Amino acid sequence: MELVILGAGPSGLAAAWRAALRGVRVTVLERSERVGGLSAGLEVAGISVDHGSHRLHPATPPHLLADLRGLLGDDLQVRPRNGRLRVGDRFVGFPLRPGELARRLPYRMLAGIARDAVLPRGGDDSFAGLLRASLGPTLYRCLYEPYAVKLWGLPGEEIDGDQARRRVTADSPWKIARRVLRGSPNGQGKIFYYPRRGFGQIVEAMADAAVAAGADLRLGTACESLVPGPSGVAVHTSAGRLDAGHVFSTIPMPALAGLVRPGPASEVVAAARQLEFRAMVLVYAVHEGGRWSPYDAHYLPGPETPVTRISEPANYRVSAADPADRTVLCFEIPCQVGDPVWTAHSYDDLIKDCLSATGLPPLRLAGVEVRRLPHVYPVYRTGYADHLAGLDAWAGRVPHVTTFGRLGLFAHDNTHHAMAMAYAAVDALTGRGPGEGWDAAAWMAARARFAEHVVED
Fold it and tell me: pTM of the prediction?
């Protein structure tokens, strides 16, 4: 069987690698000139940086971690988390440490948290309602209420509760805060895995492994249409036609709806248009004179700046390749395509204002580079599930086409979740399903498992 994969991000590359190792003929189509998507690396001022802050989570299943260690060897480092979270007008360490919150937080906030811990709470099935009920009104008001507007562009009351269920985990800063204040901290979230040459080293290694196993990786090649037939799919590309027995799509599901011929019903198209992605501007600031701070990341949930996080990639790793006389900071600024943040000509004042407003050290600024990303976070606006359900049902009925991955399923995702989905898709493809070599029951069971996962920061 010829397998065509749309997209060379982590999920597409993991599927290509695993399928090629099993003897499947694989062609990967990627419209960009490089692999990785949002997980790709880039270089600024001679320093390897990421598209925002990326880490390989310690919850990565052992078999996936073993595969990555096989590719990266000692370059896959175990690193301690050493971040800071701004709460109110001050910073606390993240992961949060026992007793630190009690010493650092304002008395009124501590009193509110203590009061919330004993008062009964209820709420509706919105992001705001669920978090007020689970974390308490005080922590929600101080942390997630402004954070929701910054990250997703909506007040918490207009965001579906799925956003909280999928994004806010048991070891997120906010839930740790509640447990620490109650005197029962745990040790989760203290380490992560990170490659010596930046997070993009993971996708580059997977791409090399897939090609070495026989996959045909075609960069700079866009899929223009998909025409399913009785025994496969005609894949029309910017470079010609391919005949696939099966197609794996990791591109945005609304984009897939625009490629399939004949297309979905008008009501499905209308639903697809209602699904939203939050964009992001990444501002890379070159700082002269060595490291800017000892921390890997600063989290800024408050309304005093549109920046949500500042990461310093060189602090994520130990690498002799990182210069001693300069560093790079990445400022993450969520926005909408076309809004004033997206279209700004300069971000120098914005990042300087951010540092001033949050009490962080100034920069010895030697240069700025900017990347604009149009599809970063799926937005679970209230009612999104109804729009997604019709589109997902349609995608599930397209013959010989399977969609998965962060964009493919309109889901938040960690790298290990993307790899797990890819492995499950290949297992279903090479299983003994009825008729055409596709085990639909196995894939549906895998989809059900994926629906239960949460994304951990």
Answer: 0.91
